[in-house]
C-alpha cells in the first residue's frame, strides 16, 4: 500500500463542476431497464394501479436524501464518509464506512450479474450456443468494460454520463414506448386496493433501499467537486430531478407491463423476460440499451468504492484498486450465476439487509449536520491525526437504529423476535431503523448535550 498525505478537501482547482453535471450523473445512473423490475415488484405487494404509481413516486423521491447530502458535500468540498467522521468519530466511522463500501461493491456485483445476463441473452438472439463458457466470456467482457471506467477523472465522468444520458436515455425511452401497448388496461384498472400498511409501506421501503437510501452514501462524492458558487437549490434540484424523472418513468412502465408479463418479478433473469415481450426486430437494440443503462451505475459504484477504501485508510494505487474491485466483481457474480442461480432472491435479500445499516447511517449523518455542522465542519474532526476518536452520540444512535431494524426484520438467516404481524416478510424494519436512529440522535442532542456541538466544536471547513 502506498503512503500518501491525506487531503481532506477537494483542491479548489478541481472544484469547477456545475449543477447540470450532477443532473446528468444521476440521470444516467437511473436509466437502467432494471427499473421495470422495480415496478413489477411494487405491483407484487398486491396494490392497485394508483397505489402502485404512488408507491413508485414516493420511493423515487427518496433521492431527496441524496440531494441533501450533495448540498453538504458542495458546501464543504469533502466526500461523504470523510464528512461522516464528524458524526461518528474517526474510529467510530470505520464500521459505517466499511458497510458503505460493502454496499457499493455489492451493487457493483449485482449490476455485473445483470450485465452478464443481458449479454448472455444477446448472444442467444445472435444464435450463439448457450453454455458456461459463453456465460464466463460475457462476464469478463462486461467486467472489463466497467473496469476501464475506473480510470476516468471527474471531468471525464461528467462528460461520459452526459453521453449515456442522451444516447441510452433516448434508447430506453424508445423501448418503453414499444412496451406500453402490451399493457392489459382492463386488468390494470380493476386491480383492487391493497393494504396501505402491509402493502404500500413495504413496497416503498424496499425500493427506497435500492435507490435513494442506497445511493445516499455516494451523494457528496460528486458534489464535492462542485464550484463553491453553485447554489444549494440548484444542486438539490439537479440531483433529485436527474434521478426521479427516469426512475419513476421506468418503474411506471414496469407497473404497466406487470399485467401482460407477470413473470418479471419472479424470474431468475427478468431482463430476458422483458426482451421476450418486444418485437423481434428491436431485441438486439434492447439488449444493447440495457447494457448501456447499467454501465453508468457501475461507474458510480466503482468510483465511490475507491473513495471509501481510501477513507478507510487503505490507500492503494489505481491499478491495485482496480485489481481488488475487479476480483470482487468476478467472484460474487460467479457464485450468483453458477452456484446460487437465483438472481432476484439474492438481490432483494442484499437490499434489505444492507439497507438497514445504510438507513441508520444516513439518519445519524443528516441529524448531526442539522444540529452541529451547518456553519461548516472542523477539519480536526475529519483528520486521521485528530483527537476525535469516537462520537458516542452518533455511534449509539446508529447502533440502536440497526438493532431495532433487525428486531423487526426476518430473513432466511434469522428472524427478529418482533418480525410478526405487519412486520413479517417485508422491509418495514428499514424505515424503523432510519426513524429510530434519527429520533435517538435528536433526544441525545437536546437533553444530554447542552452545548449542542456533538463531541467536537463547529468551525468552518475552509
TrEMBL record:
Top-level taxon of origin: Bacteria
A Pfam cross-reference name: Transp_cyt_pur
Membrane topology (UniProt): Multi-pass membrane protein
Subcellular compartments: Membrane
Predominant subcellular localization, coarse grouping: membrane
InterPro entries for the chain: Pur-cyt_permease, Pur-cyt_permease_Fcy2/21/22
Spans traversing the lipid bilayer: 21-47, 53-73, 94-119, 131-151, 163-180, 200-218, 239-261, 281-302, 322-341, 347-370, 390-408, 428-448
Keyword vocabulary terms for this entry: Membrane, Transmembrane, Transmembrane helix, Transport
Homology family: Belongs to the purine-cytosine permease (2.A.39) family.
Cited PANTHER family: PURINE-CYTOSINE PERMEASE FCY2-RELATED (PTHR31806)
Name of the protein this chain belongs to: NCS1 family nucleobase:cation symporter-1
Upper classification of the organism: Bacteria, Bacillati, Bacillota, Bacilli, Bacillales
Amino acid at each position: 500500500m502506498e503512503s500518501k498525505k491525506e487531503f481532506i478537501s477537494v483542491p479548489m482547482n478541481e472544484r469547477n463542476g456545475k449543477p447540470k453535471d450532477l443532473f446528468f450523473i444521476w440521470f444516467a445512473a437511473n436509466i437502467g431497464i432494471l427499473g421495470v423490475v422495480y415496478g413489477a415488484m411494487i405491483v407484487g405487494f398486491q396494490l392497485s394501479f394508483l397505489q402502485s404509481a404512488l408507491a413508485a413516486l414516493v420511493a423515487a423521491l427518496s433521492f431527496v436524501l441524496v440531494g441533501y447530502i450533495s448540498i453538504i458535500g458542495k458546501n464543504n468540498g469533502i466526500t461523504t464518509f470523510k464528512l461522516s467522521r464528524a458524526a461518528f468519530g474517526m474510529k467510530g466511522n470505520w464500521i459505517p464506512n466499511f458497510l458503505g463500501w460493502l454496499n457499493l461493491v455489492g451493487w457493483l456485483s449485482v449490476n455485473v450479474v445483470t450485465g452478464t445476463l443481458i449479454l448472455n441473452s444477446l448472444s442467444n438472439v445472435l444464435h450463439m450456443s448457450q453454455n458456461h463458457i459463453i456465460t464466463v466470456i460475457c462476464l469478463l467482457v462486461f467486467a472489463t468494460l466497467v473496469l476501464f471506467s475506473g480510470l476516468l477523472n471527474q471531468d471525464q465522468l461528467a462528460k461520459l454520463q452526459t453521453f449515456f444520458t442522451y444516447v441510452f436515455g433516448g434508447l430506453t425511452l424508445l423501448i418503453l414506448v414499444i412496451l406500453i401497448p402490451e399493457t392489459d388496461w382492463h386488468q390494470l384498472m380493476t386491480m383492487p386496493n391493497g393494504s396501505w400498511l402491509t402493502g404500500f409501506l413495504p413496497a416503498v421501503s424496499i425500493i427506497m433501499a435500492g435507490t435513494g437510501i442506497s445511493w445516499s452514501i455516494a451523494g457528496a462524492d460528486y458534489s464535492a467537486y462542485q464550484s463553491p458558487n453553485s447554489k444549494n437549490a440548484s444542486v438539490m434540484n439537479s440531483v433529485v430531478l436527474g434521478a426521479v424523472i427516469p426512475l419513476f418513468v421506468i418503474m411506471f412502465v414496469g407497473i404497466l407491463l406487470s399485467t401482460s408479463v407477470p413473470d418479471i418479478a419472479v424470474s431468475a433473469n427478468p431482463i430476458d423476460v422483458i426482451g421476450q415481450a418486444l418485437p423481434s426486430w428491436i431485441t438486439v437494440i434492447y439488449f444493447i440499451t440495457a447494457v448501456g443503462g447499467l454501465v453508468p451505475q457501475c461507474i458510480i459504484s466503482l468510483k465511490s468504492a475507491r473513495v471509501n477504501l481510501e477513507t478507510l485508510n487503505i490507500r492503494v494505487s489505481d491499478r491495485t484498486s482496480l485489481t481488488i474491485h475487479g476480483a470482487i466483481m468476478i467472484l460474487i457474480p460467479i457464485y450468483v450465476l453458477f452456484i446460487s442461480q437465483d438472481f432476484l432472491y439474492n438481490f432483494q435479500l442484499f437490499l434489505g439487509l444492507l439497507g438497514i445499516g445504510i438507513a441508520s447511517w444516513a439518519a445519524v449523518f443528516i441529524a448531526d449536520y442539522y444540529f452541529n455542522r451547518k456553519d461548516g465542519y472542523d477539519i480536526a474532526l475529519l483528520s486521521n491525526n485528530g483527537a476525535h476518536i469516537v462520537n458516542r452520540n452518533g455511534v449509539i444512535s446508529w447502533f440502536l437504529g440497526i438493532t431495532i431494524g433487525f428486531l423487526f426484520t426476518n430473513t432466511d438467516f434469522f428472524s427478529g423476535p418482533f418480525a410478526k404481524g405487519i412486520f413479517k416478510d417485508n422491509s418495514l424494519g428499514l424505515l424503523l431503523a432510519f426513524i429510530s436512529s434519527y429520533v435517538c440522535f435528536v433526544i441525545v442532542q437536546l437533553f444530554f448535550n447542552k452545548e449542542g456541538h456533538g463531541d467536537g466544536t463547529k468551525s468552518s471547513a475552509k
